[in-house]
């Protein structure tokens, strides 16, 4: 098989035959890819499900993200939503649409990113099905599943006044990474692969943006320790804390010193976990306290209302030309 | 709210707020849309899952397909894959990426198509989650779930020599519809909405192509009657029969007179169901016999090998300009 083969030149069936063997299997699959549908176990007769799309342009630049990064990040962002329910990820289905000239090697590297991301963040979780199409716009749609192991799901709506507000995972690193890329990895107005690569070697924020590693296992640990509410930090601490506060009918007061400097308050795309725990609870895994649930509405920092919207909105985002 | 509002002008959150109330609920949802993930029941501790993408260009033309058609067809094509396992559809997650100028009215009509399609084909099934993004290419990715009600899944691999080969649903209508559209609903080389609309009023093949109604409930009935193998006819009778025959290690001999004329042998996109039943079994629902499982390899018609590939390949398909 020609290493230069493209999706368009060999067709969907042949491309899938090359990708399939590289995809991670799921320990929960009773019937894997290859039939009309897959069959997964749902040990406690329920399953958690979430879906998220990544679009070339608003969501990533091919000059900056490798195919491996894209597979990894597509896994990470969906696994984080499963973790935020207090569930253990069990499987993914992956739909990918790519320009017909896309090399099969690119698709293989994407599959490797899914495999390595699952292995690093959610061992036992794998790809149980998918779809491959041709499109002018490279598009990745992942749906992820999880098992609650008999527990109630941890919703956004359960925070109670007096609870400790805690975070597991980095805050602001992904936002610092995208800012760095726009300031230092653009050449003649376009994303530049060489500059990004050089930058990445010395700046961990770049990898935090392009291939984040959220603390997936901490979702389950939070549920086991009695977390009252939880949310994935996809749009930034303040914006997502506001969502959790609103769903719970409470206010959240963040401690600026504990949150940290820079983009920690408002930077998006870290996919870290924000959870609330009863006062005095042991904080599990990587969780550390960053604030308190209060009788009020909205988000406060050191007792003062934080009115700035904060966070990441794909509709107000970047469109830095081709790349 | 302005009727002319677009996805880009009001943003993802406001657009979702208008779409949500129109989406069909699922009788199987314990936690519906609005949290990080949904929670569905899986009564027998397993669930069936399949995913399928529809891309503007290769998969549909906006001059011919209404938003309602797209919602309906996205549901239909995924529900058919669930049905082909012998399962009852329980839920969908829907990711939609659209150009920023797409009107919110279009998105609402798309949601209505999902609602009406679920109500017509799979009552009790509904949308439990989704994602909305901006993309230059209108893209729809649906993942569908089903419940096996304690039965084994009906795989492609179970056909046995001597079984009856049967079909439920139309054969060739969707292919006849797309051919009609290309011959009679193109103006100056482009798909034409007025011509398509006039044609649709008198030719049911057009609706069979743009908003098919596969016999979803017959998947469950086939399983209850002991179907040994089953597949959704997405790529045409011959091509999908070949897949089933190959997976089962048998040959399939089709009876031309029973299959019918025109596109019935090779036309794709009907999403009808092809199943094999033990000889003498009562054929349930809309199933009628079209052939026999034989000791051989591949597909035969009236005893003669059918070598033509047949069927629908998106990589060899049409690209008829904008529309």
Span between termini of chain A: 28 Å
Q: Which blocks of ≥5 consecutive residues of chain A have pLDDT under 50?
A: 312-321
What's the number of helices of chain A? 9
CATH topology description of the largest domain in chain A: 60s Ribosomal Protein L30, Chain: A
Shape of chain A: globular
Structural class of chain A: alpha+beta
User: Roughly what fraction of the amino acids of chain A lie in strands?
Assistant: 25-35%
In which order are the strands of the major sheet of chain A placed?
10-12-7-13-11-14-15
When the domains of chain A are counted, the total is 3
CATH superfamily of the largest domain in chain A: PurM-like, N-terminal domain
SSE order and pairing:
The structure is a homodimer.
Chain A: H1 7-19, E1 29-31, E2 38-41, E3 46-55, H2 67-83, E4 88-98, H3 104-121, E5 126-134, E6 139-147, E7 164-168, H4 173-184, E8 186-187, E9 190-191, H5 193-202, H6 204-210, H7 217-224, E10 229-233, H8 237-248, E11 251-254, H9 256-259, E12 272-277, E13 288-294, E14 298-301, E15 304-305
Parallel strand pairs in A: 4-5, 11-14
Antiparallel strand pairs in A: 1-2, 3-6, 4-6, 7-12, 7-13, 8-9, 10-12, 11-13, 14-15
Q: Key terms for this structure?
A:
Phosphoribosyl-aminoimidazole Synthetase, Chain A, domain 2; 15 strands; 4-stranded mixed beta sheet; 31% helix; 7-stranded mixed beta sheet; disordered C terminus; 3 domains; alpha+beta; homodimer; 9 helices; 323 residues; 60s Ribosomal Protein L30, Chain: A
């Amino acid at each position: 098989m020609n290493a230069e083969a493209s999706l368009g030149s060999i067709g969907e069936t042949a491309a899938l035959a090359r990708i399939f063997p590289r995809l991670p299997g799921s320990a929960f699959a009773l019937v894997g890819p290859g039939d009309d549908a897959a069959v997964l176990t749902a040990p406690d007769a329920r399953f958690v499900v979430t879906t998220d799309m990544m679009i070339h342009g608003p969501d990533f630049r091919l000059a900056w993200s490798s195919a491996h990064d894209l597979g990894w990040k597509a896994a990470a962002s969906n696994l984080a939503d499963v973790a935020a329910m207090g569930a253990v990820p069990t499987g993914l289905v992956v739909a990918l649409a790519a320009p017909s000239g896309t090399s099969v090697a690119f698709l293989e590297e994407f599959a490797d990113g899914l495999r390595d991301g699952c292995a690093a963040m959610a061992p036992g979780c794998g790809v149980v099905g998918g779809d491959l199409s041709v499109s002018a716009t490279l598009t990745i749609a992942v749906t992820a599943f999880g098992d609650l192991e008999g527990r109630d799901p941890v919703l956004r709506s359960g925070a109670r006044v007096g609870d400790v507000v805690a975070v597991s995972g980095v805050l602001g690193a992904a936002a610092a990474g995208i800012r760095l890329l726009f300031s230092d990895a653009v050449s003649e107005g376009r994303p530049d692969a060489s500059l990004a690569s050089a930058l990445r070697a010395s700046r961990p924020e770049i990898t935090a943006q392009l291939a984040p590693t959220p603390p997936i296992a901490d979702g389950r640990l939070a549920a086991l320790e009695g977390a009252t509410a939880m949310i994935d930090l996809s749009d930034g601490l303040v914006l997502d804390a506001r969502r959790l506060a609103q769903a719970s009918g409470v206010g959240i007061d963040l401690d600026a010193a504990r949150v940290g400097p820079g983009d920690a308050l408002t930077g998006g795309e870290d996919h870290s976990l924000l959870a609330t725990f009863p006062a005095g609870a042991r904080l599990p895994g990587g969780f550390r306290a960053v604030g308190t649930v209060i009788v009020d509405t909205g988000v406060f920092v050191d007792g003062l209302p934080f009115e700035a919207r904060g966070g990441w909105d794909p509709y107000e985002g970047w469109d830095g030309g081709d790349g």
